[in-house]
Amino acid sequence: xxxxxxxxxxxxxxxxxxxxxxxxxxxxxxxxxxxxxxxxxxxxxxxxxxxxxxxxxxxxxxxxxxxxxxxxxxxxxxxxxxxxxxxxxxxxxxxxxxxxxxxxxxxxxxxxxxxxxxxxxxxxxxxxxxxxxxxxxxxxxxxxxxxxxxxxxxxxxxxxxxxxxxxxxxxxxxxxxxxxxxxxxxxxxxxxxxxxxxxxxxxxxxxxxxxxxxxxxxxxxxxxxxxxxxxxxxxxxxxxxxxxxxxxxxxxxxxxxxxxxxxxxxxxxxxxxxxxxxxxxxxxxxxxxxxxxxxxxxxxxxxxxxxxxxxxxxxxxxxxxxxxxxxxxxxxxxxxxxxxxxxxxxxxxxxxxxxxxxxxxxxxxxxxxxxxxxxxxxxxxxxxxxxxxxxxxxxxxxxxxxxxxxxxxxxxxxxxxxxxxxxxxxxxxxxxxxxxxxxxxxxxxxxxxxxxxxxxxxxxxxxxxxxxxxxxxxxxxxxxxxxxxxxxxxxxxxxxxxxxxxxxxxxxxxxxxxxxxxxxxxxxxxxxxxxxxxxxxxxxxxxxxxxxxxxxxxxxxxxxxxxxxxxxxxxxxxxxxxxxxxxxxxxxxxxxxxxxxxxxxxxxxxxxxxxxxxxxxxxxxxxxxxxxxxxxxxxxxxxxxxxxxxxxxxxxx
Length: 653
Hints:
Blueprint: E1 5-14, E2 18-22, E3 26-32, H1 38-48, H2 58-63, E4 64-73, E5 76-83, E6 91-94, E7 107-109, H3 123-130, E8 137-139, E9 149-151, H4 154-158, E10 162-163, H5 179-192, H6 199-230, H7 236-264, H8 269-326, E11 331-335, E12 342-346, H9 347-351, H10 357-474, H11 479-497, E13 506-507, E14 514-516, E15 519-520, H12 527-547, E16 555-559, H13 578-583, H14 588-607, E17 613-618, H15 623-626, H16 629-632, E18 633-637
Parallel strand pairs: 3-17, 3-18, 10-16, 16-17
Antiparallel strand pairs: 1-2, 1-4, 4-5, 5-6, 6-7, 8-9, 11-12, 13-14, 14-15
Helix pairs in contact: 6-10, 7-10, 8-10, 11-12, 12-14
């Protein structure tokens, strides 16, 4: 029995809208301009499956709440939800589509990035159960007799499924430069290919554990079913039907309430006339209030000016009085020493500033004239203020009367509707409360169904593990046989791509990675050749899974197929590296042939009725793929607005 594992949708729950990418069986291509979010799609898929961290662009951080992915695993639909801002929050899993999540209580799992300290299981274990893969233990140091053991991790299995942008063509493929991590991944490879030394005994133990777990679930199901039966809890179909009826009733009640609210809007002739008169009167009253305040301020300013005039008159009068007391200015007449004329010397003028009394009297007369004018203005302002203030008070009293008349008119008109609306609102509240109770009951029923599904899942796992155990007992796979199958595929793959000088091709017994022309993968200097070999290595695992019963989900993600390779179109390489020229890797045909090999592997799976899915991210695609773009391309991003493309993953900025 082959495992089925594919993603159907990636949903980024946004502030303004949801950003959705839909996938299908077979080859799915995401391509377009740089820095548009292509690789982010693969990273988000990986993140919902429990990767430790994710680096997101500012556009996602400011536009999104969380990410969800819908997976079909062994014909069952699951939605995985994860917080993109806090990697330590549990991953929520719902046994339904994204839109139906509100009808279920989620199962919560710890991502692999935090220790198990809250009673929740790891999402890795949950995924292994869904895939019907045995939960075995592998050695952390296989070469040591006293090696420690650790459980097989889905995360390590997934490293054989996800060839990210840094890994494509990398010399450090699958951590081969890190002895500790490489050892664990090689043991994981043995687990995938059923070549672990302890596989038979471990699977036997796993079968026993599954039987016990299934018995516990069966008892749990029996207890809950009995409780529901004794409590007369309706079945799911009855609850769904009742919720639909209530929803229809809520829609009708809501429409009636809205109609009443519309009818309650005052539309009588008397009301409109009173309302118009009230508004006009209110405006006039506010105008009068402003004008009276302005007049009060004007009167106050005039009064201050009048006081200033009085003070000036008093001061000048004092000067005149002083002059009369002092008397006339004395004059001293002296003969000129040169001529016979007389010289008059006014001593006081030399020592004091003396203003003639006539000037002072004229100034007093002028001030008194201004004082009379100010008094006249003050009186006029007071009269105007009194008139406007009286009019304002009269308007305010009239406003109160008109407001009372409006309230009476409104009350007589609205009251008949209020009783009816209140009754409808009460019925609406009862319906909504009843609906909420039914939804809670539906979630409980769905929880019981989840137990039934888990029992069925255990039964499916038991069938798969028993078949695997029988196969191992009758014909235990030899890792050399596995390597031989992978070598044969690699040879055919390289031949179809048209790589020259194909010799000494094998899989290293030391690193479990390809050997080409007698050189270990990590020692090959050509980046383009490493790209081709790394992609072929992953495809060889899928080819192996199609032909043999191994623990592999038939799911591959490749980020940037054309890394280090010559292409056609917008991203064509114009100045290739010398060793790439020597290998002929800048030939666009090889780039085209890689896509052809990817399509071939999915066609092989389809011919054998085996589920498989390959998701590709690239900057451009070969021309022959563009001709049938609708069959393979799921996202096309372009910053210049190409037809049938988006500006990026977040396309509404």
